[in-house]
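Good day; I would like, with your permission, to put a structural problem before you. What I wish to show you is a protein chain and, alongside it, a tokenised description of its three-dimensional fold. I would ask you to consider whether the tokens describe a fold that such a sequence might reasonably adopt. You will find the record immediately after this paragraph:
***
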Amino acid sequence: TCLVEDFTKAEDWDGSYRYETTNVAVITMPNGDPTTAESEVPLTVVKPVLDVTKEADQPVYQIGDTATFTITVTQTTPDATAHNVVVTDPIPERFAYQKDATVTLSMAEEEPSEETTEGEAATEESAAEDSTAETATTEAETESAGSGGNDADRYRISYDKDSATLTVTIDQLVYNETATIIFTCKARSIGKDYVYDTTNIVTASADNADPVDAPADVSIVRPELGIEKTASKDQVKAGKDVDFQIVVDETREGAIAKNVVITDTLPEGQHLKGNVKVTLSNDADYTTDVNGQTITVTVSYLAYGDTATIDYTVTIDESCDDVTLKNIVTATADHADKVQADAEIYVPDPPPATDGYDKTGDFLGRYLWLIIALGVVVIICGGYGLYNRNRRAATARHYVPRHSASNKYVPRHSAPHKRTYKNR
């Protein structure tokens, strides 16, 4: 017997996982006969090669989500068998293993040969029969190489809680045989951080195969809410109305804020007028509740970029004077920090009332145009009257009556045309 060494460790290794040689035995007769007999035995040594992959069902998870991971290990060298295959996967820190791993062993289907020619029907039929017999023999050998066809006896699953490491041991993998491992983890809280990024690396090895590994990049994000509140006026008189608008959105890329609760308590001196209007940029469900001075709007979720807009109107109490009213609104969501915003409005003192009018300012503002118009009319009429008076005086100075008994006038100075003028 001989121990087959690992030829891939040799300095002159050509990169191939198949090593072929010829073993020659030489026999020399003891009587000194120079004739010798040789026996050549071709030898082929193969080394199994493992290929491993790991995938997550999505790249980004919310806190509390269930992540599904899939690992595949395949032996890729023809005629080789990997013995005692061990798959090791350390679970990331912020993921909790659910202890539900499953293992499936399967063989890749080989593509059928297309080398057929016309006129060789008998040969093809014979070849088909031989192929059927070979396939039956191969399946029997594969089943025997396993564990009597019972896959559950061929692997073992273990989980070390202290190191949070999942280990799957498989008895062997023949050429093109694949082991598929599927398990789930729950995304846990990431504390005050908003993003948790990690690269999970799985390793596969065998007694006669080099170890290989594969990464899987995953992230956990925590929602981060944004909030803004505005008033239509920053100063309003008692008894008047003012409109408020609240906008809440999810500002963290990839995050989803679930169970968003927006609470706005009106201060003393403000009274809700009409209904509360809610507008969502997504198709989430929402509810609105008004209890006394408190308005509560609950939205099922807000994804990154989604907004919830709340509009309502309040009436300022008549008793308010020289006071600043401050409205504070808060918003919360699962695993998100509480945020708040406010809007202030000032209610001034009412000015003193005047006789006949409620307010001097209102009187001037309402009738100033009429006062100006009347002044313009008076000025025009006075100017026109002054003009006529001056004209009559000028006429009296330039014309005198011709006869005392007549109403006709002649110029005070003679004129060439001798024209007479009536008394104007």
Notes: Residues 126 and 300 are 68 Å apart (CA to CA). The first strand starts at residue 18 and ends at 28.
